Automatic annotation (TrEMBL), chains A, B:
Phylogenetic placement of the source organism: Bacteria, Bacillati, Actinomycetota, Actinomycetes, Kitasatosporales
Domain HTH merR-type: 1-68
PANTHER family tied to this protein: MERR-FAMILY TRANSCRIPTIONAL REGULATOR (PTHR30204:SF69), REDOX-CYCLING DRUG-SENSING TRANSCRIPTIONAL ACTIVATOR SOXR (PTHR30204)
SMART domains per UniProt: HTH_MERR (SM00422)
The protein, known as: MerR family transcriptional regulator
Length: 132, 132
DNA sequence: TCGAACCATCACACCTATGTGAAGGTCAAC
DNA sequence: GTTGACCTTCACATAGGTGTGATGGTTCGA
């Protein structure tokens, strides 16, 4: 498929698809006329990239962890250099910390919401933790 | 305490403390000589801000949710406007999605690590999902 | 009274992920 | 064969979180 279709199917501006390519997160074949030609595969891949970006990882790191996250679930064990494994371990660690921090803060927000919603007479649409 | 101490105790560059103030995430008293004067309280507060930034929230949003997250755990129920509650609900939702996305990807990385570490013979320190 | 170590403001610079538009090639349909 | 919808590259712009340095005031100890 060409860039327009990939853009539409992933909800990603063409500009960004070119950017991801520039950052070497994806690689596009070229048809005779120079147009980018994407395999079906890239729909998932782009979605995954966006998910990781959304999660706060920089393209630099995403580039490193992507090869391990084949959407086909065929894990690429081959070619795992020690440096790469170290990077992954570090990043795994960071992701975990991030998740914890986010969770803590989200729960704090949730607690606050429960309180203000309850404000004496509990809101039936949103059971508060203690009201449950 | 002055900015230097707060900086050191929170591991945050002075520059950023001033930036957070500019963004109105924190407010500093001023002593007679014009120096910023921080209450003990701000150590926690700054740490919290950094946690939220680290989690990917922009200062704009952090500013809104901070008043609900008093570290003293004295929840500020007063002055919760409907707009603010709506923002919080939206943000709570986004945080949850973020956590899910992050978790999914982290687990994928973990799975990969478990595989390459075990490379045939499973690594006892990292139980693989199916081995468990 | 001098120097070191603080503090202040201001301002320019950077990086990353984006937006946006210009200038031009390709191709299918009318 | 021209129009319109695609595609290309190039390039400048913006926003948010930071880095860094210039320039100068305050405080304190030697």
């Amino acid at each position: 498929m060409r860039i327009g279709e990939l853009s539409e199917r992933t909800g990603t501006p063409r500009r960004l698809l070119r950017y991801y390519e520039e950052q070497r997160l994806i690689v596009a074949d070229r048809s005779a006329n120079g147009y980018r030609d994407y395999d079906e595969f890239y729909v998932d891949r782009v979605l995954q990239i966006r998910g990781l970006l959304e999660a706060g990882l920089p393209t630099r790191i995403i580039k490193q962890i992507l090869p391990c996250l084949e959407t086909t679930r065929t894990i690429h064990v081959l070619g795992a250099t020690p440096e790469m494994i170290a990077t992954l371990e570090r990043e795994h660690q960071r992701m975990t910390e991030r998740i914890q921090g986010l969770t803590r803060n989200r729960d704090a927000v949730a607690g606050y919401l429960a309180t203000v919603r309850g404000e004496g007479r509990p809101d039936p649409t949103t059971p508060s933790p203690r009201a449950a």
